[in-house]
Amino acid sequence: MFNLKSKVLSAAVSLPVVAAGLLSAAGSAEALNGRFSFDGDRTTATISNAGFNFTDPNRIELGLTTGDFVGDLGGSISDTLFASLPPIFINIDGDGKELTVSSFANPVFTTISGGVDISFNFVGVFEDGSNAIGNIDFTTFDFTNVGAAQIAYNGGSSINSVFKGVVVASVPEPTTMLGLGLVAAGMTVARRRKLVKA
Questions:
Q1: Residue 56: what pLDDT?
Q2: How is the chain split into domains, by residue range?
Q3: Which of 58, 80, 81, 83 has the highest Cβ tally under 10 A?
Q4: What is the pLDDT of residue 34?
Q5: Residues of the chain below pLDDT 70
Q6: HEC profile of the chain
Q7: 45 Cβ contact list (under 8 Å, min separation 6)
Q8: What is the reported pLDDT for 107?
Q9: 37 Cβ partners below 8 Å, 6+ apart?
C-alpha cells in the first residue's frame, strides 16, 4: 500500500507549550511554558473512527527544548480510544508534564502529494491544572484523495499512517491561539517542501 520508510518519517515536529497559569495561594501564576521538538522517525500508527494506536514502544525523543522543557530528553504518547480517553495522553519525562485530553474534534482531511493528511483538534489539561488546546497530525499513503479516506474512516476501517506530531498551546489567550495557528501553518509548509523534494 505504502512505504513506511518514506522520507516523511523524518519530518521534524515542533511542539510549543505555553500553558495557562494557575494561581497559587499567594496569588502568583505558575504555568508550564516553552517548546520542544521531536521527529516521527519509525513512529507509525493505525487510525479509525474508534481511535488511534501507535507502534510500540510509543516513545518520543526530544530534540530542541526551551523553557520548562530544557533538560527533558523524551516522553511517551498513549494509544487512544475516543469512547474512553486515556488518563495520560502525552507524558513528557518530568514532574507536572502529563497531558490529559478531555475531548477530540472530528478529523480534518487534506489531500497532499501522494497521500492524505488527517488531523484532530483536541482540548486537554496538564497535570498542574494548566488548560491546553492542540492538534495531532497523521499522514496516510493508503489513499490519494480525501473522499476515499473519509469513506474508509467513517466506515470504521483501520487506516495505516505515519504519526507526524502534535502542536499544543494554552487557552484562552488570543495571542496564543494565533501562535498555534502560525506554528501549524509553518509545519504544513515545511512538510510539503520536504514531500516536493522527495
A1: 82
A2: 7-197
A3: 80
A4: 66
A5: 1-32, 34-42, 63, 96, 167, 169-198
A6: CCCCCCHHHHCEEEEEEECCCEECCCCCEECCEEEEEEECCCCEEEEECCEEEECCCCEEECCCECHHHCCCCEEEECCEECCECCCCCEEECCCCCEEEEEEECCCEEEEECCEEEEEEEEEEEECCCCEEEEEEEEEECCCCCHHHHHHHHHCCCCEEEEEEEEEEECCCCHHHHHHHHHHHHHHHHHHHHHHHHC
A7: 52, 53, 54, 55, 138, 161, 162, 163
A8: 97
A9: 12, 13, 14, 15, 62, 63, 64, 65
pLDDT of residue 184: 53
Task: Give the angle 9-10-11 at the CA atoms, nearest 5°.
Answer: 95
Say how many C-beta atoms besides its own lie within 10 A of residue 183's C-beta: 18
| C-alpha neighbours within 13 Å on the C-beta side of residue 108 | 10
In this prediction the pTM is 0.70
Residue pair 46/159 in contact by the 8 Å Cβ criterion:
yes
C-alpha gyration radius of the chain:
17
The pLDDT tens digits of the residues spanning 63-109 come to 677 777 778 777 888 999 999 999 999 888 877 688 899 999 999 99
